[in-house]
Give the backbone structure.
Amino acid sequence: MASKETKQRGRPRSFDRETALEQAVRSFWEQGYESTSIADLTRAMGISAPSLYAAFGDKRALFDEVVAEYGRHYGGFISRAVAEEPTARSGVARALREAAIEYTLPGRPRGCLVISAALNISPGSAEVAASLREMRRSNIGEIESAVRADIAAGELPTDTDATALADYVGAVIQGMSQQARDGAEQSSLEAVAELAMKAWPERPAARPEAPAVARPVP
């Protein structure tokens, strides 16, 4: 006969894991990593602390899963725009337009979780901050790669500083996220996006073809 302990371990969860995870995403998105307590999470997720630990591990493990879930459903638009558009310019322009929309959508937290979740973090959570910083740098690296490809293809001047241009775009996106959290509306962020693109280097003018030289008739 199975023991009472074995029966308890074998019982199915009494909550929907995906629904609980989505609520955890919202909690960390709204409050950041450090400010979100286990009590906040259990209240938002509708589960007990033992159930949280059994299903997700500790707070850090849950946060790692939250970040992955956020990337799948909310945060992948920058990478998609850069990858899908034919030039770095069009990819960045699309990413900025979409950021203005995504960061201000009604019914969900404002701004970007990856940008804001590790603000004002303590030294004890330095690994969390480093992980999110690496994700942000990865996005900037994708933009830099696209810029370098455009330089090689003649879409951008050969003296374009690819690193500085990608860092500039990263700074604009991070600023748009913070402005959204401060209450900026979509239209204001769209204006920022449009103005930011005015700093993009112009495509080099095509060189005029040399006139054909008539060959002497033998």
